[in-house]
Amino acid sequence: MKILGTKSFRGGSSTIKAEQWLQNLEKNFDATQCPEDYKKDAAENYLKNDARDWWTSVKKHYGHRNPTWTDFRREFEAKYFPSEARDRLETEFMNLEQGEKSIRELESNFTQLRRYVYQGREDEVVMVRRLMQALLADIRNRLRSVTDQRTDELVERAVNVEEILKREKKAMRQKPCEEQSKD
């Protein structure tokens, strides 16, 4: 598991970090073909600090019954993915705007947050519209005429528009200097 990059989880309040840790753990379980009976014990070995303290207290509720991987996963999700956190991430997703970010930075943020919306039932066309709304107005206006069916297509076209806008702005800044040198 260590060779595959399994890291310790220390707890905390970041739903995203908790989900990334759990996904990495499960990916590594799949890669090593870890038997179901050993997953919970392996996961326990990667808990540190607050996370270890949390799991120690949770295990006490099971009494003499040894919790399973399914129990661990359910308890972990209840602790680190509460509905309030999901609601907050969904709100963050719905309010996402490009602002000063590049298209690639926006895409990264969008992709990360999108996992928390509609719990995997999202419609790609709806996601395309949501991403379009997050773009700067200059970019969005230049992309309105073509309808994309996939977010990756929209991102590639938006990156191209972003580059064109940068070149246009650079040309506009150079133009007054050229006109002054003619005088």
Quick rundown:
The chain has 183 residues and is mostly helical.
Q: Would you kindly provide a written description of the structure presented here, covering whatever features stand out?
A:
Residues 44-135 form the Retrotransposon gag domain. The chain has 183 residues and is an all-alpha fold. It folds into two domains: 15-81; 84-182. 69% of the residues lie in helices and 0% in strands. It contains nine helices and no strands. It has helices at 15-32, 36-45, 49-60, 69-80, 83-94, 103-114, 124-134, 137-143, 151-182. Helix 2 packs across helix 4 and helix 8 (137-143) packs across helix 9 (151-182). The N and C termini lie far apart (71 Å). The model has no long low-confidence stretch (mean pLDDT 87).
Summarize the helices and strands and which ones pair or pack.
Layout: H1 15-32, H2 36-45, H3 49-60, H4 69-80, H5 83-94, H6 103-114, H7 124-134, H8 137-143, H9 151-182
Helix pairs in contact: 2-4, 8-9
